[in-house]
Specification:
With 490 residues, the protein is an alpha/beta fold. It has 15 helices and 17 strands. α10 (334-354) packs across α12 (384-403).
Length: 490
Amino acid sequence: MSGLKLYNSISREIEPFEPINPCFVGVYICGPTVYAEPHLGHVRGPVVFDIMHRYLIHKGYKVRFVRNITDVGHLVNDADEGEDKLAAKAKLEQLEPMEIAQKYTSSYLDMLNAINVLPASIEPRASGHIIEQIEMISEIINAGLAYEVNGSVYFDVKGYAANNDYGKLSGRKLDELIAGAGGEARTLSGQEEKRNPEDFALWKKAGKEHIMQWTSPWGKGFPGWHIECSAMSRKYLGDQFDIHGGGMDLLFPHHESEIAQSTACTGNNPAKFWIHHNMVTINGQKMAKSLGNGISIKELFSGDHLLLDKAYNANVIKFFILQAHYRGTLDFSNEALQASEKGLNRLLTAIKTAEKIAVGDTSSIQIDTELDGFISALDDDLNTPIAISKLFDLAKKVNQLVANEGTLTQADKDALNSRFKLYAFNILGLAAEENQDENQQEALIQMILEMRKGAKENKNYALSDKIRDELAKIGLKINDGKDGATVGKI
C-alpha cells in the first residue's frame, strides 16, 4: 500500500514505512509550550507534519494524529530547577498560569487554522493527565530505575544504561551527558539531590510559591517536562506506535528521555519511527523567542516588522516552508517570502488556466508522465521541494498548451484538473484562493508573461506581439531582461 520511505532519526537511515498494524497509523507530535505568541519557528513543525498527515490519509491509512499541549512542567532554560515558563509569564502579565495557557493555546490553534493545518485527532494537555504521569512514575520506581529524594523523583540514567542504550537517538555518550538540556542550567541549586548529574526529574517537589502543584505519593509537586509525552502517547496510542515527531531541538534531552521512560515501563522503544524537522534560521541563527529574533505570525500577517516590507498571508508562508526539505534548515528573508509569493501565484494561476484547455481528439502532452513525479517525490522522505518543482513543470506546460491552442482529450483534461487540485490543495494543504487583490494581479501578469514566453519559444510571434500591444493599451509595457520578462508602467 505504501511505497513511502522516511528518514528514521534513531537508525539514521531512510527506511520503508510500514505501520505496526496494517491500515492504521498512530502518530504523536510534540506540540508547543504555550507561554507566548507563536512565531515563524513554530509554523514549520505543524506544516511538515500536516503534509505527512495528509499524505498518509492519501495513501489510504486511518490515522490517529495526537499533538500535545505543554501547559505545566517545562521550566525556564529547560532545567530541572527554577520557575515554570507559564508561571513566569503569568507574573509578567498579572494573570493566572492557566489563563496564560488558555490565551496562548488559542493563539496557537488560530495559527494552525490560518495555515490550513488539519486538526489533530486528539490534542491532550499535560495538566489534564497528571494521574497518568504519576502512575507511570510509580511504574519506573517499581522497576528500580527511579528514586525519590525529599519529595522529588529522578530517573536513574546510569541504572537504565546498564542494560539499555541511553543516547542512541541523539548519538551522545553517557559520560558526556549532563542532565536535561545541559549547560549552566545544570549547576542550579537542588542538583545535589541527584545521585548523578545526568539524572533527570520525573516529579518535582513544589515550594509554597509554586502555583501549579498536585498531590502525589511523594507529596505536593508537579511533573517533569519529559514524562508528560511518555504518558500521553502511551494512553492514546499504546505501548508502541508508528511515528513520533518533533523539532531537532527535542532530540536531546526530551525525546531521548522519553525513550528511556517508556522502555523502563514497557521494555520497548515507544515509536517505530522518530522523525525530526530542522530549524528556521534568520541570518544563519536559529529563530527563537529565547534569542529575541522571532517574527510572530501576527507580524507576518500584518507586515509590521523591520525585516518585512509588506504583509504576507498564510498561504504564502506555508508555501515558503514547503520549498525546503524538512530535514534541511530554512533560512528566512523578506526576499525569500517575495519569491514564494510569486511562485505560489504562478502555480494557482496555472491550476485555473488548466480548466480552460480545449478538448480535442488527442492530447498534446502525456498527463500521467507529468503527474507521477509528484507522488515519487513525496514517497522519497516527503521531498516537498521536488514535488513542487513537478507541479511547476506542469504549470509551464499548461501555459504553453493554452498559448499554442493545444488540446487534451476529455479524460486527460479531467485527470489533469482533478489531480492538479488534489496535489496542491488536498496533499500540500494550500488554500485554493488568494484574498489580496495585489496577489491576484501579480498572478494574472505572471500568467500573461508565461503565455508570451511560450508563444515566442514556439515562434508564434503574432500572439507574442498581440500580448505586448494589449498590455500597452492599459498602460503597461513588457521589459525583457536576462533573468526573464517583467511588466512595468509605460
